Amino acid sequence: MSGDKVLEWARSAEIVxxxxxGANLLYENGFIADVALGDFDSINNSTKDAQKNLVYxxxxxxxxxxxxxxxxERRGYREITLCGVEGxxxxxxxxxxxxxASSNLLVRFAxxxxxxxxxxxxxxxxxPVSKGARxxxxxxxxxxxxxxxxxxxxxxxxxxSVSGMKSLSNCVTGQVAIDIHSGIAVLFLTHxxxxxxxxx
Length: 200
What we know:
The chain has five helices and twelve strands. It is α+β, with helices and mostly antiparallel strands. The strands form two sheets. Strands 4, 5, 6, 7, 8, 9, 10, 11 and 12 form a nine-stranded mixed beta sheet that branches. Strands 1-2-3 form a three-stranded parallel beta sheet. The chain is globular. The mean pLDDT is 90.
């Protein structure tokens, strides 16, 4: 993820929490997080010295993402956008998804080429999505009563599971609406242009 994009998102946020080495990317691009937290096994000394608020959390039974989400919730926030979660360590990315799925917060993701959302049933999700966007709805647990509208391959009262049905690389054709009776899924949206939203 480019430093310019990270800075753009960071400047549009109400508060920026950096999980351990995530503070490095911000600092290298001239931005200091409001809070840097974690066990600090990945943060550079120069980054660490420049931080204005360090929260040392050495608990090895929880990931830095778990700690970040818990801190955000303790500070009274109800939703959060995670960025910089893409890297070359797929186990970390999957771990982040699992952390987000277990959080009480509404969790969004800002990816290099799109956005993502953790969807927990029962819910109705409906937001404007550009026609031509690529959409994937992948279950993290068994999902029952799944209805997906506004895409090329729609679903009606379907069952999604890790070992069964899922919606991968679907195409947005109109107003997207998703209903999930029970279960947890992650929604990926890859936008047709590189213009990405600010987070408020």
